[in-house]
């Protein structure tokens, strides 16, 4: 006897319609139907048996629609983002909702949910609200993750072309093959003319490299989940960590070759750096869970990944881009799965921070703003700029009297 499943929608086509409204096809040019999709899900919620992924998609999408500084205060926008994001994560990993007790990080690992989502949920719940930039980025990444986790499987008519599974990996490998040749060409030979400037050949190669980076950014924007696929292929297939390297071999040449390209990609698509650092942290912490500390310490690949991650987190070359990274996530991963390289990484980060306390996402972002001065970073002071439009400004002197006291 077949199992009876009760759904809040009348027909499966209703769910597919909601999916197309939440995730319109790239060629779609009609009106924005996301508000209607949110209203539909709200009605389904009243009927019961609504999958958490559907509800979370509606909450996150509604938070994006609420993001209008001309109608809502900045604090209201941040609170709406935080509430939707926290409910999305809690519904997936709360140990009181599902079976045997496990840590939230363990449940996130089982589901394939980025562990940085759990850390950001903890920060939004127990500390200060994260910045608007962090919340916007995390919400967009959450919707991308929900597509792969739930929506992609509700029907056979997925419309994202070669954006998933093996086809996406093959596309990434093809592009990396072309980009890799350009990366090595930028450092082969002297490349300097008699006048001390760049040679014509090297300028042409650098222009080709910028064009290749733009192509990679285009793939990342069009293909949901492509950031993690690209980061995984670059790490595991010998692009960033050469396959034949031995323990103790320097990565200076490799880093100098790939750094410019990685920064170009990050400038065009900020989520790539988040996915790259998360993948590096996961490679150090979770891929060697069953290995002994001694074997992990002597693993050339783990050493290479550690060198790259330490470089991104500490090098001045990446200073302007580190505001997109959750350092607290990296530290949380180091604490969750301790081995030689995660312990070394945690010690390095804490020493750099000047204390053993875990810096939050907001603290990390704030420190980058202070160090950057008036460098014109996008979205660095968007909260304050918006408040000034409504008549708010910074006080010249601090008044310690309680509110309401004249």
TrEMBL record:
Feature: compositional bias, Polar residues: 360-374
Region (Disordered): 360-383
Any single Gene Ontology cellular-component annotation: Las1 complex
Pfam families xrefs: Las1 (PF04031)
Example of a GO MF term: endonuclease activity
UniProt-listed GO biological process terms: maturation of 5.8S rRNA; maturation of LSU-rRNA
InterPro entries assigned to the protein according to its UniProt record, in alphabetical order: Las1
PANTHER family: RIBOSOMAL BIOGENESIS PROTEIN LAS1L (PTHR15002:SF0)
Protein name: rRNA-processing protein las1
């Amino acid at each position: 006897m077949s199992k009876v499943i009760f759904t809040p929608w009348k027909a499966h086509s209703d769910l597919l319609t909601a999916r197309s409204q939440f995730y319109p096809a790239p060629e779609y040019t009609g009106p924005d139907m996301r508000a209607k999709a949110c209203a539909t899900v709200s009605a389904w919620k009243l009927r019961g048996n609504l999958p958490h992924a559907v509800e979370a998609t509606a909450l996150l999408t509604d938070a994006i629609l609420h993001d209008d500084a001309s109608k809502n205060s900045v604090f209201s926008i941040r609170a709406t983002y935080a509430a939707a994001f926290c409910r999305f994560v809690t519904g997936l990993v709360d140990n009181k909702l599902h079976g045997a007790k496990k840590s939230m990080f363990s449940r996130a690992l089982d589901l394939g949910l980025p562990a940085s989502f759990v850390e950001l949920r903890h920060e939004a719940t127990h500390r200060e609200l994260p910045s608007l930039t962090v919340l916007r980025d995390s919400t967009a990444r959450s919707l991308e993750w929900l597509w792969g986790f739930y929506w992609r499987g509700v029907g056979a008519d997925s419309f994202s072309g070669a954006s998933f599974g093996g086809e996406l990996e093959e596309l990434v490998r093809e592009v990396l093959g072309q980009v890799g040749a350009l990366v090595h060409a930028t450092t082969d030979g002297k490349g300097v003319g008699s006048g001390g400037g760049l040679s014509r050949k090297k300028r042409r190669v650098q222009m080709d490299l910028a064009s290749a980076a733009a192509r990679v950014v285009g793939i990342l924007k069009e293909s949901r989940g492509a950031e993690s696929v690209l980061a995984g292929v670059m790490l595991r297939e010998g692009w960033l960590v050469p396959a034949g390297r031995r323990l103790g071999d320097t990565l200076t040449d490799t880093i100098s070759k790939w750094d410019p390209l990685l920064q170009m990609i990050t400038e065009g698509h900020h989520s790539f750096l988040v996915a790259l650092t998360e993948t590096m942290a996961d490679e150090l912490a979770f891929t060697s869970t069953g290995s002994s500390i001694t074997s992990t310490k002597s693993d050339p690949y783990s050493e290479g990944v550690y060198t790259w991650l330490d470089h991104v987190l500490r090098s001045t070359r990446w200073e302007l881009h580190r505001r997109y990274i959750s350092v607290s996530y990296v530290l949380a991963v180091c604490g969750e799965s301790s081995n030689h390289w995660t312990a070394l990484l945690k010690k390095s980060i804490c020493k750099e921070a000047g204390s053993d306390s875990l810096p939050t996402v907001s603290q990390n972002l704030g420190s980058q703003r202070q160090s950057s001065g008036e460098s014109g970073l996008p979205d660095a002071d968007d909260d304050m700029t918006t408040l000034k439009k409504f008549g708010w400004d910074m006080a010249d002197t601090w008044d310690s009297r309680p509110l309401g006291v004249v």
